[in-house]
What we know:
By secondary structure, the protein is an alpha/beta fold. It contains 21 helices and 20 strands. It starts with a strand and ends in a 6-residue tail after the last helix.
Amino acid sequence: MVARAYTVAFEGVEARTVEVQCAITPGVPAFSLVGLPDKAVSEARDRVRTALSSMAIALPSKRITVNLSPADLPKEGSHFDLPIALALLAALEIIPSDAAEGTTALGELSLDGTLVPVIGALPAAMAAAEENRILLCPRACGAEAAWVGAAQVIGAGSLADVVRHYTGQSPLQAAEAGEVVEAAQGRDLRDVKGQERAKRALEVAAAGRHHLMMVGTPGSGKSMLAARLPGILPPLSAQEALETSMIHSLAGLLSEGGINRSRPFREPHHTASMAAIVGGGRRAAPGEISLAHNGVLFMDEFPEFPRTVLETLRQPIETGEVMIARANAHVKYPCRFMLVAAANPCKCGYLSDPARACSRAPNCGEDYMGRISGPLMDRFDLRVEVPPVAFTDLDLPASGDTSSQVAARVATARAVQQTRFADRPDMRLNADAEGEALEEIATPDAEGRALLTRVADRFGLTARGYHRVLRVARTIADLDGEDAVRHPHVAEAVSFRIGTLKES
Length: 504
């Protein structure tokens, strides 16, 4: 007799079903595990054997063979412990075999039988729902997995709880979806003295998910402005939260008993490697651009990042997804993020400060900003200079709108876009609009078109730059509550596009 249980193996955010087959046959006593397991999976034999011994369950003096099918799919991770134990218990006729076959299980076993939380419970629940099976997981993973309402999720504290559940002695209750509520941050836009133009650029970028480049001297408030961006972004919708949490689940970032509705804000250091930013490594894990999906990727000291890292951002910015190719895997991750970059105008940082003349101007600035290639710079929708703030200005009273006021306008503009793109599943915000859809929603009036034509001729706008101006103009019109894109909207979008930076 062959007993079966089911689990999953991860390929990116996809969870592929794996059948765990267990056979107990006459022969020399042994415990064999086959099906292309890695080291962590191979060690499951000892953890399962010891966990069963702690429950006073002795293995028979026969040959035990566990096969992980399909055998050509690499199996990685410690979450195979529980499904292997489940199939073995069914083969020993301790739990009903039909109950084991109707379960997708994942979880790591301690030597005393306690279940340890593992990564990937949310994608596993999606796979279980597609196969119409129950998901069995550690109790700590239940609140996360229960967000997939189509699957019944059962969280257990130990292997003994699992046995009592399937034998009817003490049935376990279905897990309930949990949500992590973060404490409100005290960072407000009014804390930033002056910089009204940069605040406006931040609002426009947040409303349409446009990429933003800020250039200014050290201490002018670039990082301070970026840190207040989460405070003006609306919370994740249910669909966005599920998409983002699936990536965070694979990265092991959902450890607080549920998913988070706050938009991701990732700020990698400029010494981060390409694998850390884009994704990769032995397991082809998601990188910062995927962890920032539906959120913000803030890259401070942008020109200090390695050139190879910066150039790899070009395709993900355009397509919204990244393909990680390895010898043993080709994994695709979503990465629709808002890129916010901050940079000094030159190596010393004071090229544009009249009070501190740069001794190597203008070569210092050209060499430093030249580290950012023209094609990459062309992908920034908004470019704004952040001027230095005088010491005397710091004593002035706070000015401008609060974060809550800006957040209300951003939420209203995003609601308009949600309605606009309701029939287009591949588009959610103005930044996604292209082709016929962009022409339909962002065609400016006669004055606006004339202005855009003059700017394109004068500054040599690329085709990509032309379309990005239209998208930003559409967002500005949404913030103003206008149905049509008019001359003032185009003018403001153009001013952010060319700004003080040379069109590439």
